[in-house]
Amino acid sequence: MSDSAHSTNGAASAVDAETLAASDDTNADRGDAAAEPVTPADGGNTDATTDASTDADAYTFDDLSVVMGTYNEEEAIGTVLADIEEVTDGRAEVVCVDGSDDRTPEIAREHGARVIEQEPQGYGVAVREAILTPDRPVVVTTDCDDTYPMEALPEFLAEINDGADVVSGDRLYHGAKAMPAFNRLGNHAFAAVASLLMGERVHDTTTGMRAYRREVIEEIGWTENTGLSAELLIRPLMRGHDVRERPIAYAERLGETKLDPIGGGAAIAKSIVTVCLEEQLRRF
Fold it and tell me: Helix 228-238 and helix 181-198: axis angle, to 10°?
């Protein structure tokens, strides 16, 4: 596990201050791409043939699907998809499950995304369809409003190659100043409640940017709608999967938010309590 990731299987590990200082500098500049994973040099008793085989087995962007639910995001979708294309050299698959009545699906198709049209039924219904659609072995969720740093994709993929089952972007570590204060307070509260109910420290339960091994997605039955983002963290963690949180930058969104902070917040809180209790009961 890299120093800038904190594991949530047990107590969160301390993050190396020097590494995070460098991470702060990187995240402050959304134009700089995240560093590619570094392969250790041969030395000592390391067998070069074994190293070559390990490298050959590592996932690349050809194994990656980036998925999202989209709803009337014509202001931002082009930027998000262009960023994905630039960072992955056009090798990642992109899937959008769309319920828009503006130009969002048209723009997505122009950028080569696979668009699945769906009647608007809520965040979770769209994202659940999005994560279950691809057949590539690594799936990354993101939002289509340009708040998440696509330049972090290489780091997320490196964590998966390092053995993580789920890599979760922690927006709150760096302060998330672009997030409305009420939402920021609510997200800290969600993390505190989830941590208490799970007995595991987590820092950001509702982030929209995560990477998953496809088998993790397929083995769990997802039930939540507005609270799906929390469920996508809680169930894998409570079932013993290797879940790691990685600090990420968070930018001001393009376009208008679709989430009611009061009604949506209540639904998320209910999902957190429900899912945590269900997972606790599975242990008996």
Answer: 30
State the Cα–Cα distance between residues 278 and 282, nearest whole angstrom: 6
> Do the Cβ atoms of 254 and 14 come closer than 8 Å?
no
Is residue 153 within 8 Å of residue 223, measured between CB atoms?
no
Domains of the chain, CATH where assigned: 62-282 (3.90.550.10)
pLDDT digits (tens, 9 = 90+) for 40-60: 334 444 454 445 445 668 999
For 39, phi then psi, to 5°, come to -90, 125
Task: Confirm if 50 and 239 have CB atoms less than 8 A apart.
Answer: no
Q: Locate 210 and state its tokens.
A: 């995560």
Residue reference for tokens 């991470």: 23
Among 28-32, 165-169, 178-182, 280-284, top mean pLDDT goes to 165-169
Residues in the chain: 284
Q: How far out from the chain centre does Cα 261 lie?
A: 21
Q: What sign does the CA torsion over 181, 186, 192, 194 have?
A: negative
Residues whose CB falls within 8 Å of the CB of residue 117, separated by 6 or more in sequence, listed in order: 98, 99, 105
Q: 87-109 pLDDT, tens per residue? A: 999 999 999 999 999 999 999 99
3-state secondary structure of 123: helix
Task: Quote the CA–CA distance of 95 and 116 in Å, as a whole number.
Answer: 8
- 265 CB-contact burial (10 Å; exposed 0-12 / middle 13-18 / buried 19+): buried
The pairing of strands 138-141 and 210-213 is antiparallel
The answer to whether 8 touches 202, Cβ cutoff 8 Å, is yes
Closest listed residue to residue 24, CA positions, set 204, 247, 187: 247
Cα R_g (the chain), whole angstroms = 18
Cβ-contact 30, 80 below 8 angstroms: no
